[in-house]
Amino acid sequence: MNRKELNPEKSPLDAFGERLRRLRDERGWTQDELGLRMGYSGTHISAVEVGRRSPTRRFAKKADDALGTGSLLARQEKAVRETALLDGFPDFVEKEVQATEIRLFELTIVPGLLQTPEYAAAVTTGEVRRGAISEFQAEERLSKLAERQAALERTPTPMVYAVLDEGCLRRVVGGPEVMTAQLDRLIAFAELPSTVLQVAPYDLGERRAFDLPVHLLTLPDRSNVAYAESVLQGRLERDIGFVQPLLRAYHQLQAESLSQAASVAMISQLRKGNP
């Protein structure tokens, strides 16, 4: 049976999965057998081992109890929890690189896929200064963002629809030079044949469909998934009963927002310093 090679140097999440597998192998247990001792399914154990799912505190404690490893995995789970990638985000990225269509809505800052390296670095530097993340977490976040942006150049190229609240354009990040380059990047993005860029203006008011960022993916089989984040965790939602209303609201938002031509005109005006 083919098994995914694990690289513990890649990230704390991969290091946890590699150690869990190694400890399980040393005891000669299958994933189902370990899962039975812990109260989890073998599928859940597999997802943690290969890094598709982050371990929780409860999971790590149950693993330590089952494997007789004291608090070894509990300590390692803490390192995983301190990384910049939220639970659920690796699942989202795995689907994002497969998507034929990507729909984004952002409220406060330019979405990651559209950020320049300097803009992205300014965002993470601000978080480091506030103590929200560590320098290691910032580097991890920037590395993952670069990988996601590079994946957009795949063939066939996915269609990317982006709606930005006007605040994303007017909020200066990284200083005037960084912001000017970021606005140039948005204009260039809008000129691509596989993109649609729109601005949701302030005067949209209560007609704006969302009060939180939205990520919607259409996969090759035409199924749709949604990804949402809170401060502490991310969640990839596949249930059509949850996703379909979001898609409908997104289409309504697009209809209410400025056209791409009007949106580019607004960005160009801000680029010239004439809001």
UniProtKB/TrEMBL annotation:
Residues 20-73 form the HTH cro/C1-type domain. It comes from the Bacteria. Signal peptide: none annotated. Gene3D superfamilies: lambda repressor-like DNA-binding domains. One of its GO terms (molecular function) is DNA binding. It holds the Pfam family DUF5753. This is Transcriptional regulator. It comes from Streptomyces monashensis. The lineage of its organism: Bacteria, Bacillati, Actinomycetota, Actinomycetes, Kitasatosporales.
